[in-house]
Amino acid sequence: MSEDLFREVDDALRAERLRRVAWRYAGLAAAAVVAVAAAGGGWAWHVNQLKVERQKATGAYLTALNQTSNLPAPMDGATAPVALSKTTQTGLDTLRELAKQAPDGVAVMARLQEAGMQAARGDTKAALAAWDSVQADENAPRLLRDLASLLWCRQQLDTANPAELRSRLSVLSGKDQPWYGLATEALALLDVREGHIDDARRKFAALMAQPDLPGGVRSRAQDMMQALDPSAG
Hints:
Blueprint: H1 2-37, H2 41-67, H3 86-101, H4 104-120, H5 124-135, H6 142-155, H7 162-172, H8 180-194, H9 197-208, H10 215-228
């Protein structure tokens, strides 16, 4: 079940949220150039170069996003990651290069995309390392650092140390946190794993009662309530 949940989270966030954030960073860069260029002189030229670099990096990121978006799932029982096509490998190489040299916002998204594709192809070790690097990056936006921590946890809900998972997820599960729904869902699944069924029910019930959460989160919460208690609605 955790693999299905990860694919859903990864597809939605990678294809929509990160793509929108990419263009937002490009737009912010352009706005900054317009504001600073009014000062004229060499500084305006310098800022314009930064604009060009950021737009180029954003374009390269979006190309790599498409190149790495269709990966076959690992076969059941497979012990090695899925082999990459030439196009996908090119996309992965681009992401790694962007993670090293691109402007900060694009570099962070490149690392997130690399993590998602590594997880999808079955290279969990590489995926976890990439997510951890984003989470530890103090220059990255808090929203994306928290997303990396969330995905790190969801990827290994069934296998990692429960105390470490719970520690990370609890930070993300406050109702004022942007990833509240997905983090609380993960905590409820961790409760199920550890046999804390009453705690899991309470969390799923709370998710079902939140109308502002994504429909998928509420729907899965209802399914889990029914699985844990067939009399639940």
